[in-house]
Amino acid sequence: MSKLKVAVIGxxxxxxxxxxxxxxxxxxxxxxxxxxxxxxxxxxxxxLYGGTVYTDYEALLxxxxxxxxxxxxxxxxxxxxxxxxxxxxxxxLCEKPMATTKEEAEAMIEASEKSGKTLMIAHNQRFVRSHxxxxxxxxxxxxxxxxSFRTTFGHGGPEGWSVDGENSWFFRKEDAVIGAMGxxxxxxxxxxxxxxxxxxxxxxxxxxxxxxxxxxxxxxxxCLLKSASGVIGTxxxxxxxxxxxxxxxxxxxxxxxxxLEDDPDYSLIATYTDGSKVNYELGKIQSNAEGKQTTTGxxxxxxxxxxxxxxPLIDGQEGKKSLEIILAAMESSQTGKNxxxx
Length: 342
Fold this sequence. Notes:
Elements: E1 4-9, H1 13-25, E2 29-35, H2 39-49, E3 52-54, H3 57-63, E4 68-71, H4 75-87, E5 91-94, H5 102-115, E6 119-121, H6 129-139, E7 146-154, H7 173-176, H8 180-196, E8 200-208, E9 220-227, E10 232-238, E11 249-253, E12 256-260, E13 268-272, E14 277-280, H9 298-308, H10 316-335, E15 339-340
Parallel strand pairs: 1-2, 1-4, 2-3, 4-5, 5-6, 7-10
Antiparallel strand pairs: 7-11, 8-9, 8-15, 9-10, 11-12, 12-13, 13-14
Helix pairs in contact: 4-5, 5-10, 6-8, 8-10
Protein name: Dehydrogenase
GO molecular function: nucleotide binding
Organism: Halolactibacillus halophilus
């Protein structure tokens, strides 16, 4: 069987560290095209992985026969480029947040349905072993009824990771639209929905820009969430954790507590009301730090979904539900009101 032809649009850090190496390691695909408005970035990736270099995604989609497209661009471009790729007949893996408005997300889903092509959103936290194990434990009733949670994603900011450093698009409202909440908060919104297997009905938040000078997006947020069954908890996203990254989640239930990515040695610790405790060593979570790059599982899952015709774990509808929590948090902060989600 011939290999699937891949194009990666946007050759910044997420492509360099995640998408391209993971496509390269997958035997089912060939990287045939790379696109970036900065030619040298695409050429640097071409030296490693081959493929034709483009600076215009429309020219790429017109000139190449592509099976799979990764959209690794600033948030404001996620929807238009994903829609164009779907309409060209390609399956699309789009970075998170999938879009910057509910309407954009719906247009992406519609383009996927119309074209009959797969749309997947790259929420990699669902593939972390500790997160998957916690979901299993909760589903089988190990900690009984879940009462509350706290989930956090914070680090020193994208300047240490983004290809443009302090001049990164992440800090500009016209490109990013949403700051730390779009970068980190949406990960945790998706994760807590996944682990609990529940949707959220109420969102209240305080979203601030109080840590970085000269940026036009949020960099610190604390949100209160309530689920359909009445589970309440906090979601925190921050670019102001300057010493240590925090990517932890703690879930409190009637029979025990699950601590995920909250300990240096054990990725999941389950402590029960009967006095028992289980420490799980399930491998390290993804980190942006040098030397800590592990395979996310996102690319392999996307390729397999396309090959088998299965619905991916995070399709457009799933991406949209996670985005809506973030959009509600932004609205809550602006209006000072609790926002109801349908």
